[in-house]
Amino acid sequence: MDLEHKFCRFDAEVTVVEGMKIEGYASLFGKIDQGGDVVARGAYARSLKRLTEDGRVVKMLWQHDPAQPIGVWDVVREDERGLYVKGRLLNSVAKGREAAALIEAGAIDGLSIGYRTLKSTKNDRGQRLLAELELWEVSLVTFPMLSSARVASKGDELSADDSALRELAESLEGLRRNLAGV
């Protein structure tokens, strides 16, 4: 199975605190994304347990680029809403400083997970229900897949109706799928 990406954008759910600390939800359970996928509660549990047992961690990347780690996730856990993450952008990494500035300015407003699907089913509406995922990384991204969620800097208020950005994200995802032959 290939590595997949699932994008989330959050309304004041992910914040940058003290310039370099970030926290929020990288994935929300039960929400349909633009690709027609729904992540089930508990989908990350086995993966997170395996990572802990193996002494490994979920990586924090810039735009899913494995050559550009930008920080450290100190906490990655499931709760009743979804996959909660809390970590630090690294001040000693140029891209980490850049990411903090872009989030504070509102230029970057998304998180995305990199994962492999281990168990899934299709429902009668054609949606893929993701029951078990192997989580590899959580990235800061420009265009997230779940348009009802977005990142905001602490104290910022974002408009709930951001249809132009949503349409652009949908168009780019359609183009990505066409280029990938999906």
TrEMBL record:
GO terms for molecular function: peptidase activity. Residues 19-154 form the Prohead serine protease domain. InterPro entries: Peptidase_S78_dom, Prohead_protease. Keywords: Hydrolase, Protease, Viral release from host cell. The keyword Protease applies. One of its GO terms (biological process) is proteolysis. Pfam families: Peptidase_S78 (PF04586). This is HK97 family phage prohead protease.
